[in-house]
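Annex B. Sample input.
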Amino acid sequence: MNPPPVIGIHDLAVATGSRVLDLADLARAIGVEPAKFHKGLGQDQMSVPGPDEDIVTMGAAAAAPILDRHGAAGIRTLLFATETGVDQSKAAGIFTHRLLGLPPACRVVELKQACYGGTAALQMAIGIVTRDPRERVLIISSDIARYGIDTAAEPTQGAGAVAMLVAADPDLLEIPTPTGIWTADIDDFWRPNDSDIAMVEGKLSIDAYLDAFTGAWDDYRAQGGVAASEIDAFCHHQPFTRMAEKAHRKLAEHTGVELGLDTFLPSTRYNRRIGNSYTASLYLALAAVLDSDDDLTGCRIGLFSYGSGAVGEFFTGLVRPGYRAAARRERTEALLDARMPIGVEEYRELHRRVPRDTSTDLAVDPVSAGEFHFAGISGRARRYTRD
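Annex B, continued. Sample output.
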């Protein structure tokens, strides 16, 4: 009998909004010390989408370089993970499917469970490829975090997308079994159907995150997972990077294993500059770790995914030989450096301009530098273009 195929992440690419707000500017505008954001939250900047950008355009922008490198052959599934969907029925992935020119023989599904959706997509993709190793699955995790102006959560906002190609014999990361999972019904964070901003119970959400982490870790170990001392680097979901640091310290306390911050801090490189990107957050952390200076060949990376409401999952990945063959760090940092700096008033104007009423047609000019654009609303349906 042939051994089961090695399955995991074959390629990965990121995208973000085309504007950026320096959180020091926001701090001064609301009369607080910038250190409250830089040190207290662990955040430096906030990515802001332009008026012609949303989860669809960012998702397409993240996936395009993967298709440029590998083509569409074998991709028979597109899983789009988001908690900021643009339609109550139609998957955001349907729009990206057309924008990316994917073949019609491709199933497309949108997945939702707060920030956990990208990990749900990854586990589904592994199952699909296990069933038929000839297939490849394209995952897009894309989100825009929006909270009320002048709320405590406002400086944690952000916008980003990560696309991943899941395949047999992957170039980047093998995803072995087991995995640890935890779920409980908790009202720590949610967004009602009649609201375009999220409801947050801050203290409860922090406690729920930590409970989910220890619960998922305990289940991981019960399923035969390795000890914390055998994990070389960690990525935790980052609603703000200091939250993930709290989780890292909690794991050390919970396991009794000394886990230096050097095993975690490289994962914050991109999230500090982007802000919260919900389903994409964990995988931006993974991108940052894979882009670090250290050679991680053969190393085991621990990943903790959390979605409020609440679901947690802990699993690991093994870094594959040759994972550095495609230079991703240079592209990602150039992408972040190219964002247009904006002031607080312009950011707040963009915050207010999110279209809510679809009963009137709306035309949106392609003003952002990216290749993909939200073109407006016609006949109560969203329209998109590609340059």
